[in-house]
């Protein structure tokens, strides 16, 4: 009978607690094991997808205080294996700028199974220096939504080339994000498009429900204009009231007319926007 590994036996119960406190305890136990900590963590994670994911959490957390050290080296070894653990790993990188080069490498390959996660992470990290990597995959209205959203977050002016054709996308959600992206770039007239969508209705039938885009439009306006926002039913009405206090009807009408003509800004001498 094989001798049981005491280091692994000490770690195994700690994998069960998925809370942040549980992660902290597992992290401390791995650290207490010294040079055997990472090997013991690797052995303890074998044979379980859940434990493999928790190992990733520990490696990323250890690397936060030791960037480029042994934990990060193990992370990059895991990136070389295209399995379920790798997808979890790429998702964990979206709050860690030190992995931007690795994420860009994945985002260059549209056939990589974790491409969408890498694109999303680069958007979360506001990687303006890597915009050319994302723009290489732009395809007008066939641009993947995750790419549109990432470009919206990064807010590089070149992304207008992607937002503009999606203003007429058949999917309402995509149109909202195209307007949001243009407004985030500082253009004036897309604000009117988002304001109009505050009245986008819910559609209920006996067999379906379409929630409409009013709440998403409110989120976009609050993001661009620096207003508070919470994802709840009251957010739309609160945003309508802020819009009425901020913009005149004439200004919004002028924006809407210009947007319909394909203009994203008004002439510099246009009447003031404030109510």
Helical percentage: 55-70%
Strands, count: 2
Overall residue-averaged pLDDT value:
93
Tell the overall outline.
Answer: elongated
Helix count equals 16
Q: In terms of per-residue confidence, which ranges show pLDDT below 50 for 5 or more consecutive residues?
A: none
| Binned strand content | under 5%
Question: Helix- and strand-based class?
Answer: mainly alpha
Gyration radius, rounded:
24 Å
Order of helical and strand elements? HHHHHHHHHHHHHEEHHH
How far from one another are the termini? 81 Å
Major β-sheet profile: 2 strands, antiparallel
Question: Biggest sheet, strands in spatial order?
Answer: 1-2
Would you kindly provide a written description of the structure presented here, covering whatever features stand out?
It is a single chain. It is built from 16 helices and 2 strands. It has a two-stranded antiparallel ribbon with strand order 1-2. The chain is mainly alpha-helical and 275 residues long. The chain is elongated and about 80 Å long.
Task: Write the topology of this structure.
Blueprint: H1 6-11, H2 20-32, H3 37-45, H4 49-65, H5 70-79, H6 84-92, H7 100-107, H8 115-124, H9 131-135, H10 145-154, H11 160-163, H12 172-184, H13 190-197, E1 203-204, E2 209-210, H14 214-225, H15 234-246, H16 249-260
Antiparallel strand pairs: 1-2
Helix pairs in contact: 2-3, 3-4, 4-5, 4-6, 7-8, 8-10, 10-12, 12-13, 12-14, 13-14, 13-16, 14-15
